[in-house]
Amino acid sequence: MKQCNYQWILFLLAALLFSHCTFGSVGDSNKEKQTILQNLIFFNNNQTVAVGTNLRSYDDQADDNLNQFILTSNSVGYNITIQSSSYINWETGSYRINPPNQTLGVSTSSSERISTATGKTHTPYTVPLDLPADDLYGKTYPFLSVSTVSNITQYNSTMETGASFLYPNTRISNMPLGVVAVANTSWEEIYIRMDVTGGTTKSVTILLPQGSKTITPKCKIPIKNGRSGNIEILFSLSALFQDRSVSGTPIRFLDTLSAKADPVVISKVSNVDLYNILLQNLQAEDIVFSFPGCFPGVER
Predict the structure, then answer these.
(1) Is it the case that residue 64 has pLDDT exceeding 80?
(2) Residue 102 has pLDDT above 50, yes or no
(3) pLDDT(198) > 80
(4) Is the CB of residue 220 less than 8 Å from the CB of residue 279?
(5) pTM for the full predicted model
(6) How far is CA 95 from CA 52, 139, 149, 202, in A?
(7) How far is residue 181's CA from residue 178's CA, in Å, rounded to a whole number?
(8) Does the pLDDT value for residue 115 go beyond 90?
(9) Could you give the CA distance from residue 272 to residue 96 in angstroms, rounded to a whole number?
């Protein structure tokens, strides 16, 4: 099928390049050339490739122990041990894809596959929300299926910073050529049991209900023919509890935790101050969820 598409594209290109007003009347030649170009774009837009995703948990400690890490909060060191009973109940994970460049950013809905179609263009790294649902760039592409993943600190893979936990993923067989615009993840529940030692030891239970996060790439993540590697998305367990500063105001989960009576249950109805900090950390840009190694102008 792809070979046939390529032959048809070459035919259209040849017709476009070597035609000299042979489409009928002189007044109609430009319109018919425009039709050929739009058809060429349509066929190019309908090429798809298979791409996998590596969704990883890690702790940024450069060792083989995912369930143990050390963080500093307000100049005090805390040892954190996450128990094997911890789990994440994932709901969905999906991508939106942008055309590879503005030339190919054209709507391909059935109502617009005619000579009077209006081309729509989109700059990479923006979400093409105005495209129709049947357009390849108006759809979402799932990379994570509904599942409950237990023992999220189990070591089953490696990355640049050491051990990681690689979640089961769905390989997408029909992603269109282009660049990743955004990735969206959602979960039904996040449950974490951990012991935190910093002077005293506290037994902590965290119950985070349904939520979602949009992850925006800071670099060009191409979806193209010949791509060999999977897309990487990171989920940092340690970053969930680390100190942050927002507009000069420090947000310190562990320092706040140290003042609580043991045991500590964190949910939307208990220890709400700690609960709100975790929600803020989850939603912070490139803190808990991120595309690794993304820098402006760099292709990943």
Answers:
(1) no
(2) no
(3) yes
(4) no
(5) 0.75
(6) 12, 9, 21, 39
(7) 9
(8) no
(9) 34
CB 178 within 8 A of CB 108: no
25: tokens are 């009347």
Task: Classify 237 as helix, strand or coil.
Answer: coil
Contact 96/182 with Cβ under 8 angstroms?
yes
Residue of 131, 228, 116, 227 lying closest to 181 (CA atoms): 131
Backbone angles phi, psi at 202, to 5 degrees: -125, 140
139: nearest Cα among 101, 176, 106, 91: 176
Half-sphere exposure of 195 (CA within 13 A, CB side): 8
Residue 82 pLDDT level (bands cut at 50, 70, 90): very high
pLDDT band at 228 (very low <50, low <70, confident <90, very high): confident
Helix, strand or coil, per DSSP, at residue 58:
strand
Closest CA to 211 of 195, 235, 229: 235
Residue 89: alpha-carbon gap to chain centroid: 17
Q: 97, 180 in Cβ contact below 8 A? A: yes
Inter-CA distances, 252 with 106, 244, 258, 271, 287, Å: 47, 7, 10, 14, 14
Ranking 31-40, 65-74, 156-165, 268-277 by mean pLDDT, the lowest is 31-40
Per-residue tokens: 195: 């012991």
Q: Are 33 and 16 in contact (CB under 8 A)?
A: yes
| Concatenated DSSP letters of 133-147 | TTSTTTS-EEEE-SE
Region for residue 75 given its phi and psi (left: phi exceeds 0; alpha: psi -120 to 50; beta: otherwise): left
Assess whether pLDDT exceeds 80 at residue 138: yes
19-33 tens-digit pLDDT? 444 444 445 666 665
